[in-house]
Write a structure and sequence with these properties.
The complex is a heterotrimer of chains A (353), B (338) and C (324). With 353 residues, chain A is of the alpha/beta class. Chain A contains 12 helices and 12 strands. Classes of the chains: A alpha/beta (353), B mainly alpha (338), C mainly alpha (324).
Chain lengths: 353, 338, 324
């Protein structure tokens, strides 16, 4: 991760292990993750449902469910170690003020019995130190920033008077009102239709530039990633298996799981071909996993994949992948044909032109 | 009522902003009013018809011994009791419109039922209102505290109290309170309207059950709401847990409560039956017990009808309160979820 | 975060040639998901067992019921209605304090309180059970019809709206006033008012459930109706039913006490907890005689509280959200 200047690293997750107590058993949701976040970038965390993406970011804000706990590891932010935070007082230093979240479902995320304006103003008062009329004006400004018209009228309205896309804008306004350094978007566009999705993503990008935010996007949609992310981390079964700049992942992915993900994207224009899907299902996280978690479903698995967990192999200054295929002793493996052409085309587009 | 609500209501009432809103609300209220009146009418009819089955000695009273069976027949026919049901119903409603509920036979002979009841109604009303006020003042904060300290000693204690009050029939613990607490605190056993201290026990006893109700309801509501998504977002915003509880959840809780409040007041009046007898309070409940024992049919009829009506009126007032306070109804979206 | 080059060299050294060959693809392994041997009823039962208070009370209730049934056949038991004559004075053994002969003492006409209390408990429990049972049977039938049948839904809803608004106290009083008091009257009166809540509840649940997607999915898979009801709907409903049943008993007992108090309860010849409490109430003023009030009250409180707690505990245990 030495690609960017170490000094601009603002969040550092080190060897994090998170477990949950469920029905008398213990489930390991995050199996030793290390990840850095650099100032001003936009990092996307991609993965299937159940890969642990939400759990990871919730732990950064202390919003894990009651039966979850950090077993070991550090989360370093400024002078704090978030993994060691225990009391609400500790977390109040971080929540909103430093790290804010845009949640997934705008329908249920807003208080149905409070006006939208009041809900945004609460943040302004809490984190921007404004009161009364100044806070009101700032709230109106925020509403305008997120693209809502007729702000004075809208301020007094209740959430059920807005459409889904507009509600999401309000949730974004709330997050931005907190004046955070890091903005986490947890599947923020999943509940919206595609055209609105594009608008919201553009809005987030604009806001990021305007307010100098560092953003983390959680998504399972590669299209979203392509649009907004500078760097991508691919998660599978509670572990990050590949991380790198967006074009590196998309056009030079090295982990078979990444290949599988990219292959499963329907290609517009290629009619009549069978859609690729990954055989099998993700592993049961109640059990301890030996070796590479993806091995049972990996058509390119090596024997060592079932024995030892692969460490990060370096592909470039910014690109790392956890696959034994990159070991010097491993056989040379090419990605599937269709994917290769995709890679070539992509590289030409990104570097060639 | 928060500033938001006033902000909204004021213009409505002034008819400045959105006549549409005022219209929608009036429409909703009108609908509910019609429903209530209709239900009231049906219930009164049914109850009245059922009351025709009352034993007939109740109309004759002490005079029964002096009359022969034929004389009794004639007497009853004169009272209109042999007419077909429809005719009796009609006469009843006509009388009702004049404010006439019949006359008492055994309790206070030949005194109009309305007079008898109106003497008593004030006491029951005061008792009912007082009990509800007391139970709100104690019950609601108790419920909130219990939700806040969920699982700790206060919650357990509160739950124990609620279990006791709900499970054990009121009759039983009313008696015990009267027995032991009067000794303990030197409180009077009997009610005396000029002695305010004598109000304490009846009010407190009657408030015990509603307090438990409110506390239980409030606690459950708060616990449920605190798990909802919008609270999770508020937490992520950096709002303190205490602020969440008081400014967000608690405020929201009052809205559904507004709906049940009038109904509880009126139901409490019916529940005063015990207390009034135990402490000799001259209210409607005690009256009911008396007239049942004396088999005075007309008064029984009057009381039963009044009690039935009170329930419906209460529910209607509750809906009215909801309409005024819940923004979702105010703007015409969806009716009350009961 | 870095590259663990040490580990890599370790592995390389430990490796046999085999390690970096392609592994045999085993499709079975790919499909292996977590097996969960979760059984709803077992989980419910286990949750319930964890609640020691409820468990304890369940045992207590069981013992009381068993005792109440067995009691008349035990030795040294007296008749609950016989009036005992004090040998020394030759008159009725009135208001005797608890003693070796009369374990709970006697009441004001000389009847043995011990046997009266258990007889009364028998009666009250009997009334409670019958009412609860009737409530469940009628309530479920009406509720099910109401929920399933689209045709009947509207008329029943109207009827419900009307019936719901009549205060139950009034109906109880009315019924008892009209039909002279007896055990059957009380049972009938309470049944008439009781089934309403149950029916509405069942109906609400059915309406919610019948259109739930998992039932739709079952239908699509070709599951026969009876199996849908048995496996999908019933577990959901049973917890609710148990809760209402267990609450019906304290309610029934309370209603009986209430009616007796007003004067519309059972005749004195039939001992019941309501009667006993009222008899005791009259003597409230004389501290020595208070035992006549306390004993039945205590028994009644134990029973009602126990049923209430057991019912709630069961409902909590049966709620799948609490099975974590």
């Amino acid at each position: 991760m030495e690609g960017n200047n170490t000094n601009s690293r603002i969040l550092s997750i080190q060897n994090l292990i998170i477990k949950f107590r469920l029905r008398g058993q213990v489930l390991t949701a995050i199996r030793d993750i290390s990840l850095d976040l650099y100032k001003g970038e936009s990092l996307a965390i991609v993965g299937e449902s159940g890969s642990g993406k939400s759990v990871l970011v919730k732990s950064i804000m202390g919003l894990l469910d009651k039966n979850g706990y950090i077993n070991q590891g550090n989360i370093l932010y400024k002078e704090y170690n978030l993994a060691k935070f225990k009391s609400e007082k500790d977390w109040l230093k971080i929540r909103g003020r430093e790290i804010a979240m845009v949640t997934q479902d705008p329908m249920t995320s807003l208080n149905p019995l409070k006006t939208v304006g009041k809900q945004i103003e609460e943040c302004v008062v809490l984190h921007q130190g404004l009161k009364g009329k100044k806070a009101y004006e700032q709230t109106l400004k925020l509403l305008t920033d997120v693209g809502i018209h007729n702000v004075e009228k809208r301020y007094k309205q209740y959430p059920h008077e807005f459409s889904g896309g507009m509600r999401q804008r309000i949730v974004i306004a709330i997050a931005v009102a907190c004046n955070p350094k890091i903005l986490i978007c947890d599947e923020s566009t999943t509940a919206l239709d595609v055209t609105i999705q594009a608008q919201i993503l553009q809005l987030l990008k604009n806001l990021q530039e305007k307010y100098g935010l560092t953003t983390i996007y959680i998504t399972h949609d590669l299209g979203v990633v392509a649009k907004v992310a500078d760097r991508v981390a691919v998660m599978y079964a509670g572990d990050i298996i590949e991380v790198g700049k967006t074009h590196e992942i998309f056009f030079n992915g090295k982990h078979p799981y990444t290949w599988a993900l990219l292959s499963s994207l329907p290609q517009l224009g290629a009619k009549g071909e069978e859609l690729d899907s990954i055989k099998g299902t993700p592993p049961n996280l109640f059990n301890e996993i030996k070796g590479d978690a993806f091995a049972p479903r990996n058509p390119y698995a090596l024997n060592v994949d079932f024995v030892e967990r692969p460490p990060f192999f370096q592909v470039s200054e910014t690109h790392f992948a956890k696959t034994w295929l990159l070991h010097s002793d491993a056989p040379k493996v090419e990605p599937p044909q269709a994917l290769q052409s995709f890679f070539e085309e992509g590289r030409r587009y990104a570097y060639g032109k | 009522m928060t500033k938001d609500h006033l902000w909204h209501l004021l213009p409505s009432f002034l008819g400045v902003i959105g006549l549409g809103e005022v219209r929608k609300m009036l429409w909703y209220i009108g609908k509910r009013l019609l429903q209530s009146v209709l239900t009231l009418f049906i219930i009164i009819t049914i109850v009245f018809s059922l009351l025709r089955l009352m034993p007939e000695e109740g109309y004759l009273g002490s005079a029964a011994e002096k009359m022969s069976p034929e004389q009794q027949e004639i007497y009853l026919t004169n009272l209109g009791l042999r007419d077909p049901l429809i005719v009796q119903l009609g006469n009843f409603y006509l009388d009702l419109l004049h404010g006439d509920l019949g006359t008492s036979v055994t309790y206070r002979t030949d005194v109009p039922v309305t007079t008898i009841i109106s003497d008593k109604i004030t006491y029951s009303l005061l008792l009912g209102l007082g009990a509800v006020a007391l139970s709100l003042i104690i019950g609601v904060p108790l419920g909130i505290l219990m939700a806040h300290m969920k699982g700790k000693w206060l919650d357990r204690l509160g739950t124990g109290y609620i279990v006791f009050v709900v499970a054990v029939p009121a009759a039983v613990y009313y008696i015990f309170i009267q027995m032991y607490v009067t000794d303990l605190f030197k409180l009077p056993m009997l009610f005396d309207e000029y002695n305010p201290v004598s109000w304490i026990l009846p009010l407190t006893s009657m408030a015990l059950a509603p307090t438990a109700s409110y506390a239980m309801w409030m606690r459950r509501y708060m616990v449920d709401e605190l798990n909802k998504d919008y609270i999770k977002l508020a937490r992520a915003k950096g709002v303190k847990e205490r602020t969440l509880m008081f400014k967000h959840v608690m405020r929201n809780a009052f809205i559904p409560m507004a709906q049940y409040l009038p109904a509880t007041i009126l139901f409490t009046i019916t529940g005063s039956i015990y207390i009034e007898s135990l402490y000799s309070i001259p209210g409607m409940g005690g009256l009911l017990v008396d007239v049942i024992q004396r088999q005075d049919n007309s008064v029984v009829q009057g009381l039963v009808l009044i009690f039935s009506s009170l329930g419906i009126i209460g529910l209607f007032l509750g809906d009215l309160a909801m309409a005024l306070v819940d923004p979702r109804i105010k703007l015409g979206k969806g009716g009350s979820v009961r | 975060m870095g590259i663990y080059s040490e580990e890599i060299s370790n592995i390389s050294q430990k490796s046999n040639e085999n390690l970096f060959d392609f592994a045999v693809v085993d499709e079975q392994k790919a499909e292996q998901t977590g097996y969960s041997n979760y059984s709803y009823w077992r989980s419910t039962w286990q949750s319930f067992l964890k609640n020691r208070v409820a468990l304890f009370l369940l045992v207590v209730v069981g013992l009381i019921i068993a005792f109440v049934i067995v009691q008349p056949y035990l030795p040294f038991q007296k008749s609950p209605t016989e009036i005992y004559i004090d040998e020394q004075t030759g008159s009725q053994a009135r208001n005797v304090v608890p003693s070796a002969e009369f374990w709970f003492g006697t009441n004001s006409i000389g009847q043995d309180l011990w046997s009266r209390i258990w007889a009364g408990t028998r009666t009250s429990l009997f009334i409670g059970f019958v009412v609860a049972l009737a409530e469940v049977v009628v309530g479920i039938s009406v509720g099910a019809l109401w929920g399933f049948s689209r045709k009947l839904e509207a008329p029943i809803t109207q009827v419900y709206n009307i019936v719901e608004n009549i205060p139950t106290t009034i109906v109880l009083i009315l019924m008892s006033y009209i039909l002279r008091p007896s055990i059957s009257t009380i049972i009938i009166a309470m049944c008439i008012t009781g089934w309403v809540e149950m029916a509405r509840f069942i109906r609400n649940q059915i309406v919610i459930l019948r259109d739930r997607e998992y039932n739709l999915a079952s239908k699509c898979l070709g599951t026969p109706s009876y199996r849908i009801i048995l496996k999908n709907l019933l577990p959901y409903l049973i917890s609710v039913i148990m809760l209402r049943m267990s609450l019906a008993i304290p309610f029934a007992i309370g209603a009986e006490v209430f009616l007796t108090y007003i004067g519309l309860g059972l005749p004195i010849s039939e001992p019941s907890l309501g009667n006993l409490i009222n008899e005791g109430r009259v003597l409230m003023m004389s501290p020595d005689l208070r035992y006549q009030l306390i004993f039945p009250s205590v028994v009644l409180s134990i029973i009602t509280i126990a049923f209430y707690i057991i019912g709630n505990a069961f409902a909590d245990a049966a709620d799948p959200k609490n099975h974590v």
